Amino acid sequence: MMTLNYPGLGIDYSLHTHTTWSDGLSSLEELCRQGKKMGLKVLGVSDHYYIHPNMPKRTRYTAEEYVADALKMRERYEDENFSLKIGLEMDFFFENTEEVLKDLEQYPFDYIIGSVHYVGTFPIDHDPSYWVDLTEERKEEICAEYWRKMEAAAACEKFTFLGHLDLPKKFGLIDNSRYFSHALRVLDILAQRQGALELNTAGWFKPCAESYPSCSILEEAYKRHIPVVISADAHQPEHLMRHFTEARELLNSVGYKL
Asked: Does 175 fall in a domain?
């Protein structure tokens, strides 16, 4: 497994990506071609992998099939200037994460992103319509549980880094500042176990109009010397390095030097 050291990775890495193995718009081969064309040093594929304990829906591919495709693309496209890393974006669930991670040990994954997309069966980032009719009390309950799950994900040593740390703000329908203390607890746990997080540029293109996590959270991550990797959460090849320059400028402004 990859280990991310402080301060983190530069803009010639793109590790949070999705292909047609999950909800991306292109094949892994198309992603590799574009990554090489853009001059990436390291491209990682990290399609969604989740087994929801309370819903019949689950990842539609097997880890064996996914890894086989990635290994084939690695053999086809890797050279002295380009490397393909095999990863997953895995959803954290209290009920089964340990079991799922144990099962994945049989495969040659280079990294695993720990993320939270569900509170119970409530989809955090699927569509704003799920949020608009909620009472403020219910929003608070969902957000509190989201951050409780993120704390547990932060403590999981098999996650290489955490994905889109303050995701509930995506649709601009909550006051994200109300959960700052929750974010600090996650950062404290990460720092204690020498974990890492991403600066996910996709948030700049959502209604919240800011990176995941926010600048104020990144400032606190810097104080704790938590490594950061810049990620695009790319669902199409042309987004592999979307807003990476702006992301590096933001990180430099809070103290990181990438």
From this structure: yes
Q: What is the pLDDT of residues 172-209, one digit of tens each?
A: 999 999 999 999 999 999 999 999 999 999 999 999 99
Instruction: Sort strands 118-119 and 111-115 into parallel, antiparallel or unpaired.
Output: unpaired
Q: Please answer whether residues 30 and 3 qualify as being in contact, where contact means their C-beta atoms are separated by less than 8 angstroms.
A: no
Token pair listed for 55: 């819903």
Q: Does any domain span residue 2? A: no
For residue 154, what are the CA distances in angstroms to 85, 86, 150, 167, 185? 22, 21, 6, 15, 9
| 216 vs 26: CA distance, rounded Å | 34
Q: How far is CA 120 from CA 126, 136, 154, 176, 185, in A?
A: 14, 18, 19, 20, 22
Q: Quick check: is 178 in a domain?
A: yes
The reported pTM is 0.97
**Which tens digits make up the pLDDT trace of 26-78?**
999 999 999 999 999 999 999 999 889 988 666 778 999 999 999 999 999 99
